[in-house]
Design brief:
- The protein is mainly alpha-helical and 87 residues long.
- It has one domain: Orthogonal Bundle (434 Repressor (Amino-terminal Domain)), CATH 1.10.260.
- Helix 1 crosses helix 3 and helix 2 packs across helix 3.
- It is elongated and about 65 Å long.
- The N and C termini lie far apart (58 Å).
Length: 87
């Protein structure tokens, strides 16, 4: 996968279809720079890959935290449903 395709895939995965603005903000880059990378007009610098890897890691940690919160919310919903059936 070339830089443009990978930066696009990472952007879509982390931020959805309107990913270029959030990526630019996260990496403290201009949005047109992100566009140049995504379209293959410029290669992605090595330090950006390192920064983007850290951004992705932090997103993963946030998602893991949300996963645990959803398990807790599910457990509470099961208890509420069981209690309402007993009434």
């Amino acid at each position: 996968m070339d830089d443009g395709a990978l930066i696009h895939e990472v952007g879509q995965t982390l931020w959805g279809s309107a990913w270029q603005g959030p990526m630019a903000k996260a990496l403290q880059q201009r949005e047109d720079t992100i566009t140049d990378w995504a379209r293959g007009r410029k290669p992605v610098p090595e330090e950006i890959w390192k920064e983007l890897r850290e951004v992705a890691r932090l997103h993963g940690l946030r998602i893991a935290d949300l996963g645990q919160q959803m398990v807790t919310a599910y457990d509470a919903a099961v208890v509420r449903a069981a209690e309402s059936r007993r009434r």
